[in-house]
Structures are given as C-alpha cells and as structure tokens.
Amino acid sequence: MDVEDIDVYPPCLADPLTVLHNEFVETMTTGFRAYVKSRAAQHEIHPSKFTALTGGSWDSMHAPKSPLASPLTKHPFPMEVETWTCAECIGYILHETDTGTGTRPDTGARRPDVVLAEQLVSRAGAGGRKGSEWTLGAWKTGLGQLNELAVYCGIEGLEAQVEVWRERVWTAFERV
User: Fold this and answer.
1) Is residue 4 included in any domain, yes or no?
2) Which residues contact 7 (CB under 8 A, 6 or more apart)?
3) Which range of residues forms the domain containing residue 110?
C-alpha cells in the first residue's frame, strides 16, 4: 500500500447545527420527563386521575388534534413517562398548570404560545425539523417560548438552562 492510498481526511462530520439540535432535544426531553415525574409525585397524582380525562369531547374524532392535545389520553402515567416526547411533557405540564383563564392568578403570567417551542424540542421527522433547517430567529423564538413556559408553569431552573442553550446556539451560528 502506498502513502497516497491512505485517506488522511476523516469522513465528513454531521452538520454542526443538526448535532446541536439533536443534543438539545435529548437534553430537554430528559429534563421535562424528570420534571413530569417529580411534579406527579409531589402532587401524589395516580393513574386513575388520568384515565378520567379520556372520553367525552376530548376524545371526539371531530375535535381538533394537536401534538399537545393530551398525552394523558395516550399514556398511562407514570409507568410510561419514559416514552413521552418532550412535546407530550409540555402538554401535560400546561394541562396541569392551566387555570382555564389563560392567566395564573398567583403570578399574573399569561399562558404561553408554545407551538414553535414544541417543534424545536421535536426530532426531525417527528413533528420537527433538522437542526440545519432552523434559522437563528426561529431558535430565539422557540427558546423565548420555553422561557415563557418556565415562568407560567413555575419550572425552576428552566430559564437558566434556556440561557445556556441560547449562548450555545449563538456560538454555533457564528461558526457556521
């Protein structure tokens, strides 16, 4: 074998924005699953509370469907929380926090619009896009929605985590 036959360049690495997005999705999913478990344990919620949500207009075939519609009707809780997507966790948290008025009486925080955040925390092909398909503006909006979710739902530590991701995203876009 000649020296010229040796490939000195490593194979092309995956797109850095896609790698960053995949890491973000994994981190957020793990964190939200842990939060759902701790919140349910804190409130001593049992599976019977969730099965009561099935049926009626919630399950109607004519009702609008959304990824955030109700993970509670899809999964028995808490046994299968490890299979929930991040969007399903967000749906559960919003459902448990919602007062029906759109505003929390204790903090005055308004229920956030989390549509872009829900897409941001979804894997490509599962309601989301590849990391390379996200613009810096879309990242900023999605992370901002996660911050609003943290305030509305009182999720301690999420705002700080979002700030860390904001810096990582900014740095990644500077390099690309």
Assistant:
1) no
2) none
3) 14-175
Residue 120: name the closest of 169, 171, 48 by CA: 169
Give the chain's domain count.
Answer: 1
Alpha-carbon torsion (146, 147, 150, 155), positive or negative: positive
Alpha carbon 143 to chain centroid, angstroms = 10
**pLDDT exceeds cutoff 60 at 150:** yes
Cis peptide before 78 (omega within 30 of 0): yes
- Asked, for residue 84, whether it belongs to a domain, the answer is yes
Q: How far apart are the two ends of the chain, measured CA to CA in Å?
A: 37
- Record the pTM: 0.73
The rounded distance, in Å, linking the Cα atoms of 143 and 24 is 11
Q: Are 15 and 131 in contact (CB under 8 A)?
A: yes
